Amino acid sequence: MTPPLSTERLLIRDWSLDDTEAAYAIYGSPEVAHWLSTGAVDDVSAMRSVLEAWVEAQPNLVPPAGRWAVVRREDGEVIGGLSLRLLPPFEEDFELNWQLRPDTWGSGYATEASQALIRWAFSQGLEELFAVARPDNERAIATARRIGMEWVGETDKYYGRRLQVFRCRPSDL
Ligand SMILES: CC(C)(COP(=O)(O)OP(=O)(O)OC[C@H]1O[C@@H](n2cnc3c(N)ncnc32)[C@H](O)[C@@H]1OP(=O)(O)O)[C@@H](O)C(=O)NCCC(=O)NCCS
């Protein structure tokens, strides 16, 4: 099965170009962009170009790789994004990445969405999944631990910067 996935409060589904404004409220916000290696998306037009690339790439990605929007079921708002991809530069380890619109932080949405996506990824035969975070990204680190990921160390082998590494295996769920 491929997402959409449904949880108690959320829906995880493919991105659509109709999500441009909502995505910009996430990826254009300084609070989120501060933690992204790509920096902030400059404006709505740039966000649309990014989404076009994501939408075009999605059908060609080999599961469990992908990028998805996180929708709050209560009001239908797109409040975040999740992605699963091979970590550069070696492309051996799968990374879970998550971003939420800042006004929705503190509600457990990243934890809830990630747990559903991880279960799905393991159902695709994945044997382990990683998350990486800068040492001062306290919220991301807390979310990784809340999900049940185990801290495995610090490395600079990904993205050329020092990062904390967390790992999850099916037996951790
Ligand atoms: C990382 C990020 C997604 C975490 O968001 P978050 O809302 O803190 O994450 P969680 O879903 O784990 O929510 C946990 C918080 O919700 C609270 N919460 C409320 N209801 C909850 C529930 N049902 N389940 C779990 N937590 C719940 C927790 O107590 C916790 O509150 P606290 O932060 O005040 O201690 C968000 O900060 C973000 O988008 N950051 C920028 C991008 C980024 O850094 N991404 C990660 C790169 S590795």
Automatic annotation (TrEMBL):
One Pfam family matching this protein: Acetyltransf_3
Coiled-coil region: none
InterPro entries: Acyl_CoA_acyltransferase, GNAT_dom, N-acetyltransferase
GO MF annotations in UniProt: acyltransferase activity, transferring groups other than amino-acyl groups
Name recorded for this polypeptide: GNAT family N-acetyltransferase
